[in-house]
Amino acid sequence: MNNACPMATLTLAAALSVTPVHAGLPSTIAQVKPAIAIVGTYKATNSPRFTLRGTGFVVAKDQEDKGNFVVTNAHVLPPSETADPNADLVVQLRAGSLGLQMRTVKVLEVDALHDLALLRFEGPPVASFKVRDSGNVQEGQSMAFMGFPIGGALGFSPVTHRATVSSITTAALPTPTAKQLNAKAIRNLRGEGTFNIFQLDGTAYPGNSGGPLFDPDNGDVLGVVNMVLLKGSHESALTQPSGISYAIPSRFVLDLLNRHQGLAQP
Question: How many whole angstroms separate alpha carbon 76 and alpha carbon 78?
Fold first, then answer.
């Protein structure tokens, strides 16, 4: 005679069937970590010589395993009106057992409307991210993002955060200065240049800008971390983080890549 309780059997079966949410994130982090980039400026006479400006990520030609191109936010680049002509724009990359390597970069294109920039660095290619079309991203979807929060104050080891797409909302990025209020910018503010942006419930900090928002299961890039809604000044982000961040959908990254011969995604 079987004296087992049916309810207990069902409860045990349900417990055994539960799998951890995104159990693959640790392996995904290990996979993509070599493709993260530190974006900054270098000048031999400065102290410190290197100044971090934000995060970027390596992308490759035709989805190859390695690449020489970096995507970041346009606002991560030094403003032209204040840029030091004697300082080099550089990225620091992980090159296997050699650790961090500094490479000078050339700006291939700046997409000011979507606050994106495409860079190319010198030297051998390194591991890269795969960029996927963000058209199927849904509200409530789990994500992860990686970067160097608080301007490298925690060191130059990339930090990963989980996040949920809490909203997909229409946005128009503000122009950085009044000098840029030209006819095109005014049209954008009137709605002609608006586009959808991902609102995240993960907390990003200054330094995270330009970092990849990616699928925690496979590492595919689905967005680029952008604005961080802070309470007060940047300094207060350490004590009063808002918990609301934003990301530019990756479809605009694909558009950027497709505008350059030899970088088109399949």
Answer: 7
Chain position carrying tokens 């991902």: 198
Look up tokens 């960029």; give the residue. 131
Domains 27-129 and 134-256 share a fold: yes
- CATH fold, domain 134-256, is Thrombin, subunit H (2.40.10)
- Listed in sequence order, the residues at least 6 apart from 179 whose beta carbon sits closer than 8 Å to its beta carbon are 81
Beta strands in the chain (DSSP E): 36-42, 50-59, 66-67, 69-72, 88-94, 100-111, 116-121, 126-127, 142-147, 159-171, 195-200, 212-214, 221-228, 245-249
Q: Cis peptide leading into 20, omega within 30 of 0?
A: no
Q: pLDDT tens digit string along 69-116?
A: 999 999 999 988 778 888 999 999 987 666 789 999 999 999 998 999
Query: 230 with 237: CB under 8 angstroms?
Result: yes
Query: Which parts of the chain have pLDDT scores under 70?
Result: 1-23, 62-64, 96-98, 151-155, 172-193, 227-243, 261-266
Whole-angstrom Cα distance, residue 102 to residue 99?
10
pLDDT digits (tens, 9 = 90+) for 135-155: 999 999 999 999 998 766 666
Spatial contact of 27 and 94, defined as CB atoms under 8 Å apart = no
Taking the model in full, what pTM does it have?
A: 0.80
| CATH code 2.40.10.10 for 27-129 | yes
Pull the structure tokens for residue 186: 């005014």
Rg of the chain taking only CA atoms, in angstroms: 21
Which DSSP symbol is given to 238?
G
How many whole angstroms separate alpha carbon 180 and alpha carbon 63? 35
